[in-house]
Amino acid sequence: MAIKYGRPLEAQTRISPVPATASAEAECRLDLAIRPRRNRKADWTRRLLRENVLTVDDLIWPLFVADDTRSPIASMPGVERLSIDEAVRAAERAAKLAIPCLALFPYTDPSLRDHDGSEALNPENLVCRAVRAIKKAVPEIGILCDVALDPYTSHGHDGLLRDGVIANDETVAVLTKQALVEAEAGADIIAPSDMMDGRVAAIRKALDAAGLINTPILSYAAKFASGFYGPFREAADSTPQFGDRRSYQMDGANLREAMREIEADIEEGADMIMVKPAMPYLDVIAAASQRFDLPLAAYQVSGEYAMIEAAARNNWIDRERVMMESLVSIRRAGASIILTYYAKEAAKLLSS
After folding, report:
1. Cα dist. 128→68, 73, 278, 325 in Å?
2. How far apart are CA 79 and CA 20, in angstroms?
3. Helix, strand, or coil here: 244?
4. Which of 41, 96, 177, 223 is catalytic?
5. Residue 27: its pLDDT value, please?
6. Fold exhibited by the domain 54-351
7. Does the annotation mark 223 as catalytic?
8. Sequence spans of domains, the chain
9. The whole model's pTM is what?
């Protein structure tokens, strides 16, 4: 006999005999001890019993900055590249909405890109100037800076190319210098996204040696080689000029490897860890949240955003509802931090 909730299944679904004069409703009534719908009947009970709650405090808002004026990103409707002045105004709006942190990504002028991404080490590069401007105007808001070379290299890869291969250790040496440049400009969180081996340990050592012991590292610990990055690559103009990134970003089929990558970054000194993308990898987020005690971030990437926007513009889905449902799903999986292009809109809804 099947058992459910500790009682015989047949006992839960028995139909009670009723007199012939009883109403039609009574004639159909089941003799159920367990009725989960009781807890769903009113808005207040649903709110009272909600297991996972999304708040503004969970959100990081990614911004694209450029040296020229505001320009739209065709594959990400509603998202634009912002000048530094416009990024400052966006930071002011974020602070009013109580969004804790911004993530800055540069659109580097092609004339400044070279084979080795040397502009990444320029203390006056676009990101560093944007960080200083935002921290001066809105000192209370956090700023996360990405550490990777793809916005700065002429070939679009995240590291140094040597004979057609990404040179891991040489790349780590450059990334370490890039991290120092960003931290010294005022970045509050350093976030290496390159997926080179050993870069967290090298960056932690360099930050500590420079007296920046209180600058945390949020490591893109499990960053998958995903097809969901396409719109971001348009926004940052960072598509590889040849090949792909599968030799350094993770294979999307591998969960155990993701746990090893995360564990290694924690041992090297990461203060926070990230899984990217988010929704296609909710199982990875869930596994990481159960196994590791560090704060866990997830990046709802550009392709996830673009799909919701495209479906909504065709009136196939309720945009606002699906936007919030997607964010709650990431939170439910175990992420305590969500990088999302919907941060501003979600914050408005949550505050109301």
Report:
1. 16, 22, 28, 35
2. 65
3. coil
4. 223
5. 78
6. TIM Barrel (3.20.20)
7. yes
8. 3-47, 54-351
9. 0.90
